[in-house]
Amino acid sequence: MGAVNTEFRLGGINHLALVCSDMARTIDFYSGVLGMPLIKTIELPGGGQHFFFDCGGGDCLAFFWFPEAPDGVPGISAPAVKPGEGDLASATGSMNHVAFHVPVQEFEEYRRRLAAKGVDVSPILDHDDSPSTVAREFHPGVFVRSFYFSGPDGELLEFACWTRSFGPEDVTHAPRTAAERRVPTATA
């Protein structure tokens, strides 16, 4: 979107690797529902698997299946709810959500198509710089439109489309630090 990496010539995300509980169900969803071609499968030592789906633009979404992987914990390993339905927080180092870029002119149609396939999709959110970060209606300050849905293991997914370019005026917030965190304490 205009900014240039002066350190490394990165070409996007090679792959993002998640962990699933059922590889067959994962294939059904990502290839069958979302249409992502399964392009590589790997059997791992110890009985695990690592499968790769083409998610467009030369990028892949990959899944590991481990025979002894613990179950995810909503609200810790991933958000417990979709945006607009409650607290979106997840643990440090967790994968909060995966946003897939879709064409702006097909955005609303894609939402209708997913809903027709039985996928529970959120309302459309028009993200802007207002205090709530979501506009009541589309306006020129909206920078991305999105809607959310969940994968078979509760992983939070998003279809998003940029609606404008960014400039230096879009980078105005001071970064927060670990000292500012309010980590809940365990109760006995």
Defining traits:
2 helices; 4-stranded mixed β-sheet; 188 residues; 2,3-Dihydroxybiphenyl 1,2-Dioxygenase, domain 1; globular; single chain; alpha+beta
Furnish the topology, listing elements before pairings:
Elements: E1 15-20, H1 23-33, E2 38-43, E3 49-56, E4 59-65, E5 98-101, H2 107-116, E6 125-127, E7 134-135, E8 144-150, E9 156-162
Parallel strand pairs: 1-4, 5-9
Antiparallel strand pairs: 2-3, 3-4, 6-7, 6-8, 8-9
Describe this structure in words.
The chain has 188 residues and is α+β, with helices and mostly antiparallel strands. The chain has two domains: 1-70, Roll (2,3-Dihydroxybiphenyl 1,2-Dioxygenase, domain 1), CATH 3.10.180.10; 79-170, 2,3-Dihydroxybiphenyl 1,2-Dioxygenase, domain 1, CATH 3.10.180. The protein has helices at 23-33, 107-116; strands at residues 15-20, 38-43, 49-56, 59-65, 98-101, 125-127, 134-135, 144-150, 156-162. The strands form two sheets. Strands 5-9-8-6-7 form a five-stranded mixed β-sheet, covered by helices on one side. A four-stranded mixed β-sheet has the order 1-4-3-2, with helices on one face. The protein is globular and about 50 Å long.
